[in-house]
Each structure stands twice: as C-alpha cells, then as structure tokens.
Amino acid sequence: MGITRVESHTPQVDAVEAGHLSEGADYATYRSRGTTDWLLIQTLGGAGRFGVGTTEVIVHPDSVALLRPGTVHDYGSHHDHWELLFAHFHPRAEWLALLDWPEAAPGLRVLDLSPTLTGRVADALSLAARNSLSGLARGRLFAVNALELALLWCDTQNPAEGRMDDRVLAVIEHVGRHLTDPLTIADLAAVANLSASRLGHLFAEQVGSSPQQYVQARRIDLAKQLLDLTTRPIAEIAAEVGYPDPLYFSTRFRRQVGLSPSAYRLRDGR
Predict the structure, then answer these.
(1) Tens digit of pLDDT for each residue in 155-173?
(2) CA–CA dist 200, 193 (Å, integer)
(3) Parallel/antiparallel/unpaired status of strands 103-105 and 108-112
(4) Following DSSP, what letter does each residue of 152-221 receive, concatenated?
(5) What pLDDT, in 10s, does the model give residues 201-225?
(6) Helix pair 185-192, 211-229: axis angle to 10 deg
(7) Residue 71: closest CA among 40, 41, 107
(8) Beta strands 16-24 and 28-31, pairing class
(9) Which DSSP letter does residue 244 get?
(10) pTM score, two decimals?
C-alpha cells in the first residue's frame, strides 16, 4: 500500500502573498495539485529540495526557484536548515516574459544569481513580504510593485536573455549616477576592476556598444529631455549633461539625432 501524504495548507492568493521562513530539518510542504498561482522561492541559507516526479532538485543560496501553477508542491529542507523568501502570486500579463526561466524539471524553473543580484532580489522580496502583511490600504499594490522589481532583477540573470555581468551592471549604474562627470574609459575600467580593453570587449558584448558610446547616448538622451521640457539655453544644457564646450556638444548631438539642438527644440513648429 502507498503512503498517504498529509496535504499542506493552500493559500488563497489575490495578487501576491509573500513572506520569510527560517526552518529546521523537519520543514516540508506537500500539495498534490499544486496551486493556481505561481510560487517563487529564494534560498537565503541552508538548502532546500524540490521533488518533481522521480526528480529531486536541490537549491542553495544564490538560487531562485519558480513553480508553475498546477505543478505538484513537494518541497522542504534539505538536511538541517532552510531559510527562504517566498511569494505566491498571479502575474500581470506583462510579467509572463519575465518568468521564462530555464527548466530544472517539469513545472520547476531555477535561476542562479550573481552575488550582487542575490542581494537585490532578496531586498525586493523582503519589501514585498513586509508590504504584503503591512495592513496598509494599498499594501498589496506595494507588494506587487516590489515583486515586479525582484522579477526584473532576476531577468538580468536569465541566460536566455543574455545574463548581465555584475561588472557591466556596476558601470551602467555608475554612469547613471555620474553622467556629467568626465567618465574616461580608465575611470569606468576602475569601477569594473578590469583593464580598459577587457571592459570594452565585455561591455560591447553585453550592451552592444562601447562604454564611451553608451555614455554619449545617455548624455544626448538627457539633453533631448531638457530641450523638450525646459527653456534653458543650449549652452547651459550642454554643460549640465557633461559637455563644457557647446560647439562640441552640438556636433555630437547632430551626429546622434540628425538635427542640431536648436533645430531639435524647434521641430514640429514648437
């Protein structure tokens, strides 16, 4: 005779229900029909196991697991301890592309995260958990937004989408914070702790342009915004986006946009 397993509680999820657990060796969950929602679990400490048919998948820190709706839930601690963040959720339509992770077993998807992204995903899921239980009038919406941030960070690590290197991400974020600084290739290479030539190769491979081209494109994008939304003089805008020489700024602007800054501001008869 087969062993009858005890069914675990099945949550009734409206949009998202998130939380944090730190459990011992006896922690286990079993739902023979799974759930109607998706379930995301990030391992923070120890290890967990997922049973899918005859397959057992072990997850460790720096990994995130995703169970599709209708997949049997058979998971728990692997050995003596499992600390995890979880989120049951019904995805928005635009999230579905963010859930296309590598499949470790039927209905179970797993991503390995870099150390930097592990922290960012954990921060977002922790925020989702706090807001999920906050009692605020819009607490569930705050939780949904935090979960979306976690999924977006996970997407940067999806090999199907081109996993982003932490060093490239560090350069992109540095550029965003210091767009008006000189930002030489040597400066950016130091941020990434790489040689200038190695950064150039890696950046082009992952972003599709050189670091210098990326900086220029972001500066011109900011200049376009300021030309559209303010009446500041062009020379002032040039300096604000990192070009002290207005003539050099105009040359770069025309090369990227196809119009001079003044013509761009006056387009469509404005």
Answers:
(1) 999 988 788 899 999 999 9
(2) 12
(3) antiparallel
(4) HHHHTT-GGG-PPPHHHHHHHHHHHHSTTS---HHHHHHHHTS-HHHHHHHHHHHHSS-HHHHHHHHHHH
(5) 999 999 999 999 999 999 999 999 9
(6) 110
(7) 107
(8) unpaired
(9) S
(10) 0.83
